[in-house]
Write a structure and sequence with these properties.
The complex is a heterodimer of chains A (about 325) and B (about 100). Chain A has helices spanning about 5-25, 30-50, 55-80, 100-125, 135-140, 150-155, 160-180, 190-215, 225-240, 250-270, 285-310. Chain A has about 325 residues and is an all-alpha fold. Chain A folds into 2 domains: about 1-125; about 150-325, no CATH class. The radius of gyration of chain A is 23 Å and the shape is globular. Chain B has helices at about 5-25, 30-55, 65-99. Chain B has about 100 residues and is mainly α. The radius of gyration of chain B is 18 Å and the shape is elongated. The longest helix of chain B has about 35 residues, at about 65-100. Chain B contains 3 helices and no strands. Chains A and B meet through helix 1, helix 2, helix 3, helix 4 and helix 5 of A and helix 1, helix 2 and helix 3 of B.
């Protein structure tokens, strides 16, 4: 109890838990989403305290930023189809049948048991037990990059990252299929302040995103964080109607979706010959290959996240959409 | 009584957030809120993994759990996007039925 920062930790932890409770218990859904976004940003701050800046960046950009935008877009759509768009405050969703009390008690008991088990396991486990850090530190010089998290993501456990790209690809295919023929909610009115904001921030976001990608080789940052920041460019372009997706752009969008994953898999197959296994990059080219893969994966992530935000495939309808300017 | 460290504080936070999300996912009736609750669960799990990677002194944490959490965050946003698309579709279909 000597470190005064521990007081900050305790306060932050209390705020995180309180925001989690509040975001589930507040009646207004819009408020719930805003509380959730605050919760995500404070969680990211907590992870910075736990010396995990990469994870904090990813959580702030993807887990909170992009997810928050997706949630708000969905809420806008729900209010549009239920005809409660203009009413303020909107009538809260009243459940048709309230949950019976025994069900709530059974759920609570079940959750309590799981939580107790988790807590017992966590408190009983040795803190800071043997991990992979000595192994990673030992192999780091051979990876081609200086930042351990990037080395793990793009080299030592590259299969995970490749499959992550496939998951994103599957998600965008699923969203396009689910929303086929769905009518779009009218775009919310944004006003002059937003236009000015977009004009000022767009160039800055492009610089920040590229910097995150480039810096990822030696410091916290990388393809996913950079990609999410660049996806924000797509979101702003879509929201401000500076870019309206057209059916003719679908071909480019599809190529952009598969670009990262395709090149990633291609490199893996190329290096696989001559006694090496997949992802065993030749040492002299490792950094070049990793940066190439990261750059293309970043583009794919940015386009895919923006497409996930936009939702519907831009088919020939009166208004259409689907991807950001590649 | 174990010593008060950031790992302990945020570990307990992670378990609490996971529990809150679990209760929410089971008890919430609104679809959007249920997705929100599952998202809370994933952040709670992320807390535990990041805590497991924490080292004292904190200059060289274990990078493997960090990479796993980053992967998890990206997979979670994909799953959330699909879930929300399903919700939008369902709501539109229900609105058509009512009309």
């Amino acid at each position: 109890m000597t470190d005064p920062v521990l007081v900050f930790d305790l306060l932050l932890a209390a705020a995180v838990v309180a925001l989690a409770v509040a975001s589930l218990s507040v009646r207004d859904l819009f408020m719930a989403i805003v509380l959730f976004i605050t919760f995500g940003l404070l969680s990211a701050l907590a992870w910075v305290r736990l010396s995990a800046p990469d994870v904090a960046l990813a959580e702030a950009a993807i887990g909170t930023g992009v997810t928050g935008a997706l949630l708000l877009k969905t809420l806008h759509h729900l209010r549009y189809v239920t005809g409660t768009l203009d009413r303020d405050p909107p009538p809260s969703v009243t459940p048709a049948t309230p949950v019976p009390a025994p069900v709530i008690w059974a759920n609570a008991a079940f959750c309590g048991l799981i939580t107790l088990g988790l807590a017992a396991a966590f408190l009983g486990a040795p803190q800071a037990g043997p991990g992979f850090d000595p192994l990673v530190a030992e192999a780091l010089p051979a990876s081609g990059v200086e930042h351990p998290v990037t080395a793990v993501l793009l080299n030592f456990r590259a299969y995970d990252t490749l499959m992550e790209g496939v998951v994103l690809l599957a998600a965008v295919i699923a969203v396009w299929q689910i929303e086929r023929g769905l009518s779009d909610a009218p775009a919310p009115a944004l006003g002059e302040i937003f236009d000015g904001f977009a004009r000022l921030t767009l160039p800055a976001i492009v610089v920040v995103g590229t910097y995150l990608l480039w810096k990822g080789a030696e410091a916290p940052g990388g393809a996913f964080q950079g990609g999410a920041v660049l996806a924000a460019v797509g979101l702003l372009l879509l929201l401000s109607r500076l870019y309206v997706p057209q059916p003719a752009h679908r071909g480019v969008a599809r190529w952009a979706f598969v670009l990262g994953t395709g090149v990633f898999a291609g490199v893996a197959l190329l290096v696989a010959g001559g006694g090496r296994v997949a992802f065993e990059y030749p040492a002299e080219h490792a950094k070049t290959l990793i940066l190439l893969i990261e750059a293309l994966v970043t583009i794919s992530i940015a386009v895919t996240l923006a497409a996930l935000f936009h939702g519907r495939e831009p088919v020939a309808l009166p208004s259409s959409g689907g991807k950001k300017d590649a | 009584m174990p010593e008060l460290t950031p790992a302990l504080i945020y570990g307990v936070t992670g378990i609490a957030v996971f529990a809150i999300g679990l209760v929410g996912a089971l008890c919430a009736q609104d679809r959007l809120r249920r997705v929100l609750a599952l998202k809370l669960c994933s952040v709670g799990a992320g807390f535990i993994l990041v805590v497991a990677a924490w080292r004292d002194p904190p200059d060289a944490p274990d990078p493997v759990p960090h990479a796993l959490v980053i992967t998890g965050i990206v997979v979670m946003v994909s799953a959330t996007a699909v879930a929300l698309a399903l919700i939008r579709r369902l709501q539109s279909l229900e609105a058509e039925d009512d009309a």
